Amino acid sequence: MGETIWGRILLDLQREGLDVESGELEEAMRRRASHWNTVSYPYGSEAPWDSTGQEGVYYWTKYFGLSTLAEKTVNSVLGFHAYRYWDLSIAAKMKRFERQVHHYSIGNRRRSCSLRMLELVQAAYELLRY
Asked: Between residues 28 and 55, which one has the greater pLDDT?
């Protein structure tokens, strides 16, 4: 979560001509993206419905041109739109709680479009920063 801010910092460092600092940050992020590109699910979490890792994986793989992983990341989030049958061990421990959890997860499903919106925000930022 909050990974996009590092992209903004990198752009500002580049804009301000701080080449050493921007180079170090970009290389650190390149190493992360390269590693993510070697594992099946780089955005994993302790909970099956968690999507806290997708933002960073999407942003940096898109930035470095790893489009296959970027698209896979978007698709992993879009999968939240499906009814979740796999988390009954967590959501069904109390009677009727399973239905409640699925009901309240609808908000998470609406937020899944935020990765698609990231491109629009990036474009707007580029237009407005000068």
From this structure: 28
